[in-house]
Specification:
Chains A, B: GO terms for molecular function: heme binding; molybdenum ion binding; molybdopterin cofactor binding; sulfite oxidase activity. Chains A, B: This is Oxidoreductase, molybdopterin binding protein. The structure is a homodimer. Chain A is an alpha+beta fold. The first copy, chain A, has two domains: about 70-265, Oxidoreductase, molybdopterin-binding domain (Sulfite Oxidase, Chain A, domain 2, Alpha-Beta Complex); about 285-405, Immunoglobulin-like (Sandwich). Chain A has helices spanning about 5-10, 35-50, 125-130, 155-160, 175-180, 205-210, 375-380, and strands at about 70, 75, 95, 110-115, 120-125, 135-140, 165-170, 190-195, 200-205, 215-220, 220, 230-235, 245-255, 270, 275, 285-290, 300-310, 315-320, 330, 330-335, 345-350, 355-365, 395, 405. In chain A, strands 5-4-13-8-9 form a five-stranded mixed β-sheet. In chain A, strands 6, 7, 10, 11 and 12 form a five-stranded antiparallel β-sheet that branches. The first copy, chain A, has a five-stranded antiparallel β-sheet with strand order 19-18-22-23-24, with no helix packed on it. In chain A, a hairpin with a 2-residue loop joins β10 and β11 (about 220). Chain A is globular, with a radius of gyration of 24 Å. The two termini of chain A are about 40 Å apart. Mean pLDDT of chain A is about 90; it is low at about 1-5 and about 5-25.
Chain lengths: ~400, ~400
């Protein structure tokens, strides 16, 4: 929440955040710096020549080149450490697929809804775009979003880059099910994609009637191919693979279909002799995005920043520790705080030059608190690796200012 | 607001929005359509070949090519009719400049704050990024955002495309003024840009201490060159030119500087013998974005969509008329409704095939109601053309389904 300073506070210096930028001496504007004529020319160059004409599509500055980080052949991570706010640029949204990104013709591709419905129907993209629309901002996260082999020299992108946020627009699935009608015995539906993996998941009908959406727009324009063009299933707060991309078919049924992606994969063996299936909701999580590896800090003020989110609803609190977990302070949350959405947290911190560890801990509206690694292992065992690893993460600050991931081996 | 259907409602068909897609008969899934082997191959092609591998930067689908529309050499408009939700993709954000887009080196460019301050200071981009950050979603609009020569065959982009919305991140100007301190007599500051126009505006200090921001990030990443890279002044709700791009200098003073852009330009001659200077706040406005030219409607259900916004705060209501202004209905507003931000409105409408006119009218939290063209001219006269033309706009629906802008000559 923005701290608003009154004129009086500024004039009398009582704002309480004076000296925030004491990190390095700012060049006083009236210091006796001699500028060479060459430097003056450089500084004035932009005022002496016509700039670029208007264009049909903008470009990034040549001085900025954010990139996703491809991971084997199956994913690419968002550069969390380079981003601000809560929206992920569409071309930096993480990817995860099992057989590459298909090219689908929006004039040929259709969504079929059939099975235990009154009236099976097919919908084209044009049909979906004409129907009553809904828009919401929410995150998507891969359930395997923690690099369990990460060493010290690991960026947030490399550690946990398989999560991004967009403003999604589409048609509520309940609207479509209202067109087809649903038979009384129905309890589940299969969602199937048109990629070469033909990824399929069984979804409880209750979620389909709740906040499920068939999304065709991402950050204001057509959804991107890597995110499912021409449309995908969007299940706010649920693990990434259930948000089936390149959606082609929904088959309504009275039972789950027990596909490969919910039996062989994406189930969590527990400490007991049982496995948890359909562990679909992404539990509360937070990650510091700055300062992290490869930042180098100077003594003095900086702002600790990060993202927190929960598939169960809103984040209500994020605690940050600057002393390895001994004491915790509440970070500020950037409003408006949305349900099932990346929430930006910040905490001003004055580093005194001694080595320490930075941690963040999220609390969501259900009261759930992001667990420590020890709590996670004790409660679930190690069999559920590498899914749903939402434990607290640490960043070491060395006395020379280098920041490193506080890596701990998992097995 | 999303209408949530219960299982009971769907099963008993009592949702009340049945038949929304009665516009054309959907292909029933069990109809006796014979598919040729060739068509089957086409439909299955995406499941039989590996798709694209993960990439560092995503691309739009080849089937989607949204574009800005350059206007002479001084602007380009956002394709409002092709967009959804409220976020404008960064490379489609409108442009407006007076001498082209400069290329600035973030390692050389600095922001100087001087004048009636205790301590003049210069800030680099790195300094600004290290300071306490704030993030907000808000619109920017050019004060001249209405094409007064538009004829019938005019898209929203051509009519009114000089408005866009981003999630902006930066440092609050009040934080910077706290570093410099401000002298007791100060009441204004000059904001000056580093482009070849060296555009400069005088801003009341009160706005600088309120919600003014030095913005360096746009939709999560570095601000774009066309929007002011490496940083700009952001004054939520104020006319576009005051949000000085490529910001290089703020000079604090006790009086306005009376620059060209606030005397020769951007002042509004009134019906009296007086002119209004510093007409900085963008009044409430709305525009239908669909259906508009060049849509062609079919009889039956469609969804009327548009955007509404106000520089004075939140939109509280948008009324839509489907009969040329005789009767008005409240449209649904997509939440969360934010202050000084584009708000998406929607209204389901069943077209009966007869010619008519569609209108939208915004109301903001101050109680201000978007005026008719007649009201605007009667109260302000025509001398203020072409600035701040925020009147109600109409779209003609012909009986053959063609939609055209309901153009009216201004002079």
């Amino acid at each position: 929440m923005r701290k608003k300073l009154s004129r009086r506070q500024i004039l009398t210096g009582l704002s309480g955040v004076a000296g925030v930028v004491a990190t390095r001496p700012l060049l006083a504007a009236d210091s006796a710096e001699q500028l060479s004529l060459e430097k003056i020319d450089q500084l004035l160059a932009s005022t002496r020549q016509q700039g670029w004409a208007p264009s049909g599509l903008g470009q990034r500055s040549a001085f900025e080149s954010p990139q996703r980080l491809p991971l084997y052949n199956i994913a690419s991570g968002t550069p969390l450490q380079d981003l601000h706010g809560t929206i992920t640029p569409a071309d930096l949204h993480f990817e995860r697929h099992h057989a590459g990104v298909p090219t689908l013709d929006p004039d040929m591709h259709e969504l079929l809804i059939h099975g235990m419905v009154d009236k099976p129907l097919k919908f084209s993209l044009a049909d979906l775009k004409r129907m009553p629309s809904v828009t919401r901002v929410c995150f998507i996260e891969c359930s395997g979003n923690l690099n369990i082999r990460a060493g010290e020299k690991t960026t947030p992108q490399q550690l946990s880059g398989l999560t991004s946020q967009s403003e999604w627009t589409g048609v509520a699935l309940s609207t479509l099910l209202n067109e087809t009608g649903v038979k009384g015995k129905a309890r589940w539906f299969l969602a199937e994609g048109a990629d070469a993996a033909v990824l399929a998941r069984s979804i409880p009908l209750a979620k389909g009637l709740d906040d499920a959406m068939i999304a065709y727009a991402q950050n204001g324009e057509a959804i991107r191919p890597e995110q499912g063009y021409p449309f995908r299933l969007l299940l706010p707060g649920w693990e990434g693979n259930t948000n089936v991309k390149w959606l082609r078919r929904l088959e309504v049924s009275d039972q789950p279909f027990m596909t490969r992606e919910e039996t062989s994969k994406y189930t969590d063996p527990l400490k007991s002799d049982k496995s948890r299936l359909f562990s679909v909701v992404m539990d509360a999580r937070s990650i510091i995005t700055s300062p992290t590896y490869p930042s180098v800090l100077s003594k003095g003020w900086t702002e600790i920043r990060g993202l927190a989110w929960s598939g169960h609803g809103k984040i209500v609190q994020v605690d940050v520790s600057v002393d390895g977990g001994r004491r915790w302070q509440k970070a500020a949350l950037q409003g408006p705080v949305l349900s099932k959405a990346h929430t930006r947290f910040t905490l001003p911190w004055r580093w005194d030059g001694t080595g320490t560890e930075l941690l963040s801990r999220a609390v969501d509206e259900s009261g759930y608190i992001q667990p420590t690694r020890r709590q996670l292992i004790d409660s679930r065992g190690l069999g559920s690796l590498p899914y749903h690893l939402n434990c607290i993460l640490g960043w070491q600050v060395r006395s020379d200012g280098q920041v490193l991931y506080a890596a701990e081996p998992w097995a």
